[in-house]
Amino acid sequence: MAAGSGVAAEACVGQVVLPGDVLLLPAHPDEDGEQLRLGASVAPRGRLLCGPGLRRCAAGLLVTKCGLLRHRQPSGGAAAAGGAYWVDSQQKRYVPVKGDHVIGIVTAKAGDVFKLDVGGSEQASLSYLAFEGATKRNRPNVQVGDLIYGQFLVANKDMEPEMVCIDSKGRSSGMGIIGQDGFLFKVSLGLLRKLLAPKCEVIQELSQLYPFELVLGMNGRIWVKAKTVQQTLIIVNILEACEYMTADQRKQALAKLSGH
What we know:
Blueprint: E1 6-8, E2 16-17, E3 22-24, E4 37-38, E5 48-50, E6 54-56, E7 60-63, E8 67-72, E9 83-88, E10 101-110, E11 113-117, E12 124-127, E13 147-156, E14 159-164, E15 176-177, E16 183-186, H1 189-196, H2 201-209, E17 212-216, E18 221-226, H3 229-241, H4 247-258
Parallel strand pairs: 1-3, 4-5, 5-9, 12-14
Antiparallel strand pairs: 2-8, 3-7, 6-7, 8-9, 10-11, 10-13, 11-12, 13-14, 13-15, 16-18, 17-18
């Protein structure tokens, strides 16, 4: 597909698209006369969502990343104009996105703000008040080198990324400082998305092998802690290798381990 040409989005699903390609949308606006909605987590019936690697333009969708075009049908049924489009790419550098849950490493304290390395082009900021129950007198015990699991409140190209460890109701919801023990490692963003999928087979199979704690960050970082160091390293090795293993190969490897 030549850069800048217009091709129907439906015809390109599962194919490689390049930055500059224009994907044409079905000419059936929804009830509000709006054909596209950005940044929503759930698509109303007939609404079309624009995911990572795509941007709205006058003709339809402009591709901003190289990768495979994906499409998810709306939950209601076979409405052609509904669902979501995104580009599935093997991107190495993480680009912060508002609402993403990530694992950051505290690199500095600057007054009332902590600076965190999140794997992006610049560091993110985290206020000491962005923790559940935090006040001026009751400050969280955060030290340089600590791992923080939180989500982006602000993330765009014109502003410094800002993280919080509370949801809209002020609850931690599992976010905050990650324990000192455990093992932190990095995987590709493509593998991370697979692990975050509902009912992920890899996670289900590993949970039958050993009991362990797992934190998945959208920035490609994974924190694992099992009962022993050996079990932790086994889980880390399986998670790193499963990107290049078939389902049968993975099951054979797990069968050998469970037989010990």
